[in-house]
Inverse folding.
């Protein structure tokens, strides 16, 4: 299978924050943002694999800044690394200033999707060739994050998490 670049899976969703999607402080409800992120990641994983994809894990989400009602929110997702059947997808969330158009990053997340066949059985996916410095950095850390996610899910014995051991034990 020919390797692909992260750019080939780039998915950009832009939408408004409406009053029904906010919390008591009139900021975007976290669960609504997670749903938008999940949708963007799902499309990115599908673009990379051209298969049915399912969310296997939400590895990390950071709600750094609140998103006020009326904001224009852009969710940008790209596959950062592919393994055998699983893909790590990085998602960055931005809002833009109404007058200047200047973008501020408010959130980021890391998801794992798995490509499956019609019976739900995992199937192989193409590998990733990072192009930019940021893509390379995200690619390099992906195995470590995969191992951490598997350890937390009880699917990998911590003593077999080689990348984590290297990180903590030097
Ligand atoms: C995700 C799913 C397909 C994995 O199936 P499985 O029988 O555990 O298959 P495997 O153990 O072979 O795992 C498949 C891949 O997923 C990876 N994976 C599984 N769980 C993972 C986790 N928690 N974190 C990171 N990667 C994970 C495995 O490492 C493997 O990766 P690789 O093939 O790239 O090496 C299966 O658990 C599933 O269908 N889950 C439900 C998905 C779903 O419905 N999502 C929507 C939730 S509403």
């Amino acid at each position: 299978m020919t390797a692909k670049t992260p750019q080939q899976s780039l998915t950009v969703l832009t939408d408004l924050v409406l009053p029904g999607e906010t919390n008591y402080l009139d900021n975007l409800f976290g669960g609504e943002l997670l749903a938008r992120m999940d949708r963007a990641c799902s499309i990115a994983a599908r673009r990379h694999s051209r298969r049915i994809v399912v969310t296997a894990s939400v590895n990390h989400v950071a709600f750094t800044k609140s998103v006020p009602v009326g904001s224009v929110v852009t969710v940008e997702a790209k596959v950062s690394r592919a393994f055998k059947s699983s893909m790590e997808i990085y998602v960055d969330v931005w809002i833009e200033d109404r007058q200047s158009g200047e973008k501020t990053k408010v959130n980021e997340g890391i998801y794992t999707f798995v490509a499956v066949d019609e019976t739900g059985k995992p199937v192989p996916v193409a590998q990733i060739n990072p192009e930019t410095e940021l893509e390379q950095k995200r690619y390099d850390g992906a195995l470590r994050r995969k191992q951490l996610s598997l350890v937390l899910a009880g699917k990998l014995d911590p003593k077999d998490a080689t990348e984590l051991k290297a990180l903590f034990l030097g």
Q: What stands out?
A: The first strand starts at residue 11 and ends at 16. The mean pLDDT is 95. The chain is about 30% helix and 30% strand.
